[in-house]
Amino acid sequence: MFILFVFSLNRAIAEYLSHDLPYKLSPDDAFVTSGCTQAIDVALSMLARPGVNILLPRPQGWEVDLDAVEALADHNTAAMVIINPGNPCGNVYTYPHLKKIAETAKRLKILVIADEVYGLLAFGANPFVPMGVFGSVVPVPTLGSLSKRWIVPGWRLGWFVINDPNDIFRNPKIVERLKKYFDILGGPSTFIQAAVPRILQQTEDVFFTKTINILKQTSDICCERIKKIPCISCPYKPVGSMAVMVRNL
């Protein structure tokens, strides 16, 4: 019964994330974690080896400086991390830019780790596009959780999902090793896991619409009030996530 329960949970996560992808994820592609923090730990543990490095690009013009990425990458580079929507920048990457990121990663022969814990929390001109859309270009481990979109930070339930329709990960048995690794990890509370399929499948759109409206309104209020404070400024009005960057004048 426990095995069936876990399979049902993984299947619900895979089906939920598949809605915005050009291919279907399987339950074997999804792993449940204790929040997105544990998903990050798994991603780092999966890639860890002596001398390895992972690139965390700084935004330039609120996009990834891909020239800098190519200049910094070397034979020990295993991956680069993309946080979208951005925190604390409040930016949302466009489809064309994400495509360039995927093509750059393919050229460098590295992974793209997509931290999408704020996924779909976009309220500007750019719609949220999951990095997994480009999983056929380069393998993409996607990290996410319930905490932000469903506003339940204390629940500590997240996921580590492999977007790899070309089965690049499966050839060297990476998925098999991941399963063994997850077998020794502690997971979220059982009652929370039991609630996830229903949460993912039955939350009404009005809840998400209300959340987006609140985020946009509070973003507008913050930026307007920051303008009235003489010693600080808001260099970029957020269009996603839940944070705003402030600069000292």
Structural description of this entry:
By secondary structure, this protein is α/β, with parallel strands linked by helices. It folds into 2 domains: 2-202, Type I PLP-dependent aspartate aminotransferase-like (Major domain) (Aspartate Aminotransferase, domain 2); 205-248, no CATH class. 39% of the residues lie in helices and 16% in strands. The protein has helices at residues 2-18, 35-47, 66-72, 95-108, 174-183, 190-202, 205-226; strands at 30-33, 53-55, 59-60, 63-64, 77-83, 111-115, 140-145, 158-163, 232-233, 247-248. Strand 3 (59-60) and strand 4 form a beta hairpin.
Features:
249 residues; alpha/beta; 2 domains; 39% helix; PyrdxlP-dep_Trfase_small
Question: Can you give me a brief rundown of this structure?
Answer:
This protein has 249 residues and is of the alpha/beta class.
Give the SSE layout.
Layout: H1 2-18, E1 30-33, H2 35-47, E2 53-55, E3 59-60, E4 63-64, H3 66-72, E5 77-83, H4 95-108, E6 111-115, E7 140-145, E8 158-163, H5 174-183, H6 190-202, H7 205-226, E9 232-233, E10 247-248
Parallel strand pairs: 2-5, 5-6, 6-7
Antiparallel strand pairs: 1-8, 3-4, 7-8, 9-10
The largest sheet has its strands arranged as 1-8-7-6-5-2
- Strand percent estimate: 15-25%
Largest sheet: 6 strands, mixed
Quick one: how many beta strands?
Answer: 10
Using the coordinates shown, work out and report the CATH topology of the largest domain: Aspartate Aminotransferase, domain 2
Q: Class by helix and strand content?
A: alpha/beta
What's the shape? globular
What is the annotated CATH architecture of the largest domain?
3-Layer(aba) Sandwich
Mean pLDDT: 92
Helix content: 25-40%
Number of domains: 2
Tally of individual helices: 7
**Helix and strand element order:** HEHEEEHEHEEEHHHEE
Distance between the termini: 60 Å
Spans of 5+ residues with little confidence (pLDDT < 50)? none
